[in-house]
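Exercise 7.
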Amino acid sequence: MVRSLWTAATGMIAQQTNVDTIANNLANVNTVGYKAEVAEFKSLLYQTLQAKTTSANGEEKPIGAQVGLGVRNSAITSIFKDGNIYQSENDFAFALSGKGFFAVKGEDDNTYYTRNGNFGIAISNNGLALTDSDGRPVLDTNGKEIVFNKNLVATDIVVDEEGAFHYPDKDGKLQPLNVTIGVYQFNNPAGLDKMGDSLYAQTNASGEVINEAKAKDITKSKLMHGYLEGSSVQVADEMVNLIVAQRAYEMNSKAIQASDEMLQQANQLRR
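Solution. The predicted structure, written as tokens, is:
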């Protein structure tokens, strides 16, 4: 069987995954805290047609003859660069600039990490809980759920530039609530497992979580209250990448068509 049929087929499959990745980026162009993803490729096995030391006259050759057998997707990598920052009217909106993540507690009691800081106050049996848009509790610098006394007025809770919460006393003076929103880092954020809902899970590839409030010798993230971080997707770049991927897909389909025509010519030789 002609190798080019299978080789071009791997190219079409790989480019389809590339288009899927680009489509996902464009679909999340307005998702808060979303990080653009890039499909990466690697070549498949090579078949040796002629060794370096082989020639028709038995002489040594400096270069052999190897033919590639196609391509496959090696990874889909999230690019963790800061998105555009824009102002929000939400009193509990937070944006991060840098390598940090917010931490939330999932329904399975596991900790997940996100760059989506569009939080709010939910009324629970324990009091007023700071949660994400899906009701998952946000964690503080000690890894505990952020819960305020149920007698407090949510609209009167104030957050400073460090993410610490305060509440006015009877005289109107702000008093600390001894709660600070947690920010965490990873040595290899690209190794985090994407869970959907803008959540990431820690893996062996990402390394151990680093608590910015307790770690030393790290560059801490900048927390901005009253702002949100937009998606890092650049529409113009994605459209260019889409055109390139589409042309690559077409060229691989042309290679299959050419291989098919070659097989037709070979079949007709016996007639």
